[in-house]
Design goal:
Strand content: 15-25%
Shape: globular
Number of strands: 13
Strand order of the largest sheet: 5-4-6-7-3-10-11-12-13
Structural class: alpha/beta
Keywords: ATP-binding, DNA damage, DNA recombination, DNA repair, DNA-binding, Nucleotide-binding, Nucleus
CATH class of the largest domain: Alpha Beta
CATH topology of the largest domain: Rossmann fold
CATH superfamily of the largest domain: P-loop containing nucleotide triphosphate hydrolases
CATH architecture of the largest domain: 3-Layer(aba) Sandwich
Subcellular location: Nucleus
Family: Belongs to the RecA family. RAD51 subfamily.
Protein name: RecA family profile 1 domain-containing protein
GO biological process, one term: resolution of mitotic recombination intermediates
């Protein structure tokens, strides 16, 4: 596929050619500022270029076009009304949602919580089916999952006890361990579709999407890495849209250092989701979870405060809410209480 086949304004195509950017995939490894400098295009033109290029590489329509065509699908509740309000009902079906953050922020726990929430009937924010949890790095936290299951009556006080007791939570979570990219691709292209086609699951978690790409590729292998990344994202998008399910990819973060020529102090560090622009263009919803300095207490429990933020989403305004990790799960808090 060449530039003439893409649905772009002629002046955008002309600017790309003047910049001597020959391949569509090479656009995805360049940042927006670099593309603006090389092409002379506006910020909005560059964003449209990235959206169309990413869609062409994975062989699917742009996310925005899919949403306009199909409309919003069912939502998967996070199991907490405060967190659900932030996301206008929960995770969106029909696309990839990313949850990134530093180690210990609570990302995996929220993924486990969603694996339980999906099993509830639709009237209680679930999808009435099971979940697949693909672990690519650490061992699966079985003990924490069992604790979350035992505490479901406390977390889901909105659900009748008879409904909770009727659910066999452990039997409906299919755990997969993938030690390399080949086994990960095999899992999402063969085993997961089989479970979906049989109606056994309606939710997929990959924890984490960055671990294998970081371990198997050197910095000089960026082209092959991005090729493999696009292959994986294409498969995840296909599963999400074909079966109308939410897909959650838990992501690591990387340090970003900010230096100012007007200060003699140390470099300031912040974090951003791993895997760069090539991956960012595959994500429909980006959530960030981070630990705060304060703590919150409740009865005999205490927790470090967390912050769940919506970085971008087509159906939700950017914003965030404080949260805490209790025995029963991750819950939003009001005014730090």
């Amino acid at each position: 596929m060449d530039w003439d086949q893409l649905d772009l304004h002629p002046r955008v195509k002309a600017a790309v050619r003047r910049a001597q950017i020959s391949s569509i995939s090479s656009v995805l490894v360049l940042s927006s500022p670099v593309l603006q400098t090389r092409t002379g295009l506006s910020c909005s033109d560059v964003q449209q270029l990235l959206i169309v290029a990413a869609a062409a590489c994975r062989g699917t329509p742009p996310i925005q076009a899919v949403l306009l065509k199909t409309g919003p699908g069912p939502r998967l509740s996070l199991g907490c009304p405060v967190l659900d309000r932030l996301l206008r009902g929960g995770l969106h079906s029909g696309g990839i949602s990313e949850l990134s953050g530093q180690s210990g922020a609570g990302k995996t726990q929220l993924g486990l919580q969603l694996c339980l929430s999906v099993q509830y009937p639709e009237e209680y924010g679930g999808l009435g089916s099971g979940a697949v949890f693909i672990s690519t790095e650490d061992s699966f936290p079985v003990r924490r999952l069992q604790q979350l299951i035992s505490e479901q009556p406390c977390l889901r006080s909105d659900v009748p006890p008879s409904v909770i007791s009727s659910l066999k939570f452990s039997d409906n979570i299919y755990i997969e361990h993938t030690a390399d990219l080949v086994s990960l691709q095999t899992c999402v292209s063969r085993r997961v579709p089989l479970l979906l086609s049989r109606g056994l699951v309606r939710f997929l978690v990959v924890d984490s999407v960055a671990a294998l790409f970081r371990s198997e590729f050197e910095a000089s292998d960026w082209l092959e890495r991005n090729k493999q990344l696009l292959t994986l994202s294409s498969c995840l998008h296909h599963l999400s849209h074909e079966f109308n399910i939410p897909v959650l990819c838990i992501n690591q973060v990387t340090d970003v250092f900010n230096d100012s020529e007007h200060t003699l102090g140390p470099l300031r560090s912040s974090v951003s989701p791993a895997l760069g622009l090539a991956w960012s263009n595959q994500v429909m919803v980006r959530l960030m979870m981070r630990r705060l300095q304060g703590t919150v207490a409740r009865e005999d429990q205490s927790s470090t405060l967390r912050r769940l933020e919506v970085v971008f989403a087509p159906h939700v305004a950017s914003g965030g809410c404080d949260a805490a990790v209790w025995r029963e799960g991750v819950c939003g808090v009001h005014d730090g209480k």
